[in-house]
Each structure stands twice: as structure tokens, then as C-alpha cells.
């Protein structure tokens, strides 16, 4: 009797173990298949071409392509065009100008349909511009600096137009499918982050194998995929559009934006955002030339540079996660105070590196630079996220999208000012391709200027992100649903940067 009971107990235990293993396998399968099921759900709800557009534009064109472009462009100016660091810094600012005029692209995609479509022609145009620009850079052996700058700016224009067009599609679907708005933004952010991580990870190897010009040739593929989006994108046809109304619509939108900008509730935070970005001088080109110099600097290889930037993108992603889970409910003024202060302090890591203090502490250059890049990018993202949230809070109903694009353009103009200011600083300190004696001073001046905006924090509202920044009278709107939908073009930009 005891033996039978023991046998039954063993059978019960074996059955329990088998069920546990089966449940574990099913749990792992559900976890592995969850992303695909999620993407399938979005495709069924909003059409597969929309999901394809987000992945191609955010993930491949901006994310992966952005990583390849950043590293490839740095080596192109340094090794192919052989320009000075200050010149390269100014040129990088010029290529960002298409992002400053994003409201123009947004207004065009909203109120000027082409051949009966509002989005598809702009995807096609963006793809063509990108392919032409990248192939031209790749195939021309001795391209003058002016034409190289022109093609790089044309490529930047291609990415900016595609960005605005897909933002508009995300915003429209957020209106028609409000319950899936968070899923769409998550898809945008996930695609961009993974694409950037892959792009930076392989950028150094590609530059080493095929050179900067070869990388530009590879970049024609993401641009071509944007063209494919324009061909396959599912969009309703709009026949008999009255083009005579375009001017009036543009005029009405411009007047509404100008009236809003005059409000102290809007221009005061805008002033702080511009100054905080403009005074954070960008001297990264000088640092890059020093990174790759074998005599004065560490002499990093292309693979080292690509890996370093990929770790920086991981730090940036950690910053987003930290903000989302810990810091998003803190008041703007307090959060911006600490992030701006930490931003200035983190810059001292660059100063330690340039002065080679890390070697005195027994820390190898590469190890120290990787830590520096991760920490700097994480803090930079923590500083950027509350500014994005504050920007979204400054947009009145009815012109949310277009006005958000305008405010983002002000921020981008601040970044342009920082880039040109950094180039001027490198020039007056005589930081050249081979002379880096004053680079430490440029880093120190940059770090000091980073904390200067703290004296202007009184311009920022002391409310928390869950509260309204605008007064009640500005939150009232008589704009009809169609106009509101047409103007919502930049909601998804909250998950971007990002370059």
C-alpha cells in the first residue's frame, strides 16, 4: 500500500513538473511573440502601410541612417574635405537649417495637397531628394566644399520633410484612434531608438571598410525606402482641391501663431529655452578631431568612435526611461534647475579627459570616454525631455501641431546658435586639425556657459507637467474638428530628439 502511494506521489510530481515546464515554455513564447502581435494589432487597426511608414522613416531613415550619417559626415569633413574643426562645426549648423523651418514643411503638408494627396507626394519628394543628395556625395571624387555642403543640406531637408509627413500621419491616427495614441508614440520611440543603436554600432566598421563616401552611398537606401513609403502609403484621395484657399489658410495660421507668441505665458518660457540651448556651445567637432589625433589625443579608430556613439545612444535611452518613471511629475523649474546644473558639471568629464587627468587616476582613455559619453548623453536627454513637455504645454487648441513645430524651430535655432558659437570659439582659440593646446579652455568656457541660464529660471512656470501652463482664456477655441486635425502635425515629435 505504501509503495502504491509513493508511486502515485511520484507521478503527481512528474505531472506537476511537466505542467510547469509547459507553462514556462508558453510564457517565453508569449513574451517573444508579444512585439509581433502588437505590431500586427496596429497594422490591422490603422493599415499596414502606416506601420511600415513609421518603421521606415523613424527606425531606418532617422534612426539607423542618422547614426551612419553622423559618424560618416564627421570623417567626411575631416579626411575627405580636410577642413578645420571650426569650419566643420559651422557646416554642421548649416545642415540643420531645414529643421529650423519645419513649420513651413508642416504647413505645406497640411494645406497644399499635390495631385489629390496630402502626404504621399511629400514622402516621394523627400525620398528623391535624399537619394540624389547621397549618391552625388558618394560618386563625386573631388567635390568642392560648397557643393558638398549643398548636398548634405539637401539630405537633411529630405529627412526633415519625411519627419514632418510621418508626424502628421501619427497625429491624424491619434485623433481617429485615441485609445492607440500611446501605442503609436511608443512605436515611434522604439523604432528610432533601436535604429540609432544599430546605426551607431555599425557606423565605425562601415567607415573603416568603405570610407565616408561609401557610407553616403549606403545612406541612399534609407532614402529610397522613404520613396517606397510614398508609393505604398494608404491615404484618401482629395479631388477638386481649391488652391485659391491656400494663401488664406496660411495667413490665418500665421496670425494665430503670432498672437499666441505675444503672450508672456508663451514668450517667457520660449526665451529661457532658446538661451539654455544657445549658451550650451557645441564644440564636438573640436573634440572629435582630438579624439582621432594619434599625437595630441587618444587616436581612436573608426570602430572606437562608432561604439562610443552607440553607448551614448544607450545613455540617452536610459535618460528617457529615468524621466518617464521617476522625474516626469516634478515641477518644471526644479527639474530644469538640477538638469541644467548637472549638464554643466558633466562637461567637466571632457575637461578631465583633455587634460589627461584620467591617466593619472589609472583610467584608460577609451574606458573613460565611453563613461563620459554615456553620462553626458543621459543628462542631455534628461535636460531635453522637460523642455519638450513644456513646449507641448505652450500650444493653444486649434493650432497645436503647427505651433509645436514653430516652438521646436525656436529650439533648433538655439542649437544652431550653439553650433556656430562653438565654431567661433574654436576659431578664436586657434583649435585646428593638429593644434589642440587651447582645447581645454574651450571646454572650460563651454561648461561655465552651460550654467548661466540658471539665472533666467524665473521665466519658466513653477507648475508641474500635469498642470496647464496657459491661462483659461487661451485654452478656449472655436476651431472646428477638421481644422484641428489638419493642424495637428507634430504630436509624435515628443519622442524625438532626437539628432
From TrEMBL:
It is a multi-pass membrane protein. Keywords: Membrane, Transmembrane, Transmembrane helix, Transport. It comes from the Eukaryota. The chain crosses the membrane at residues 46-68, 122-139, 145-166, 187-210, 216-234, 271-292, 304-323, 335-355, 403-426, 438-460. The keyword Transmembrane applies. Its main location: membrane. The keyword Signal does not apply. It is found in: Membrane. GO terms for cellular component: membrane. Pfam families: BT1. NCBIfam families: fbt. Belongs to the major facilitator superfamily. Folate-biopterin transporter (TC 2.A.71) family. This is Folate-biopterin transporter 2.
